[in-house]
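Exercise 7.
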Amino acid sequence: MRQRVDGYKNVTKGLHLDFGDKKMGFMVEHLLIKKYGAMKAEHFSNDPVRSSPGKKHFANASKEIQEQAKNYAEYIKFKFDTMSHGDGIKKMSVRGCP
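Solution. The predicted structure, written as tokens, is:
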């Protein structure tokens, strides 16, 4: 986390979702980075080395897998946006995802 948010290691709110597949996790990360414009944010560590490898995985995935990644990203965004600061990190299950 420290590498992603420019040295801030104490997260006030966040979500953790284990997809059981690193590629899916990276694809969802890529979509969320893109949605939030995180690579352009001053407080985000936008070093290209730390950029998500999910962009390449997403481009090479089938339409079905891309749609699944988009659904996961939307679900995570919804859950995150409805959390309060200070909630810490919540673990979620993929069973609850659309």
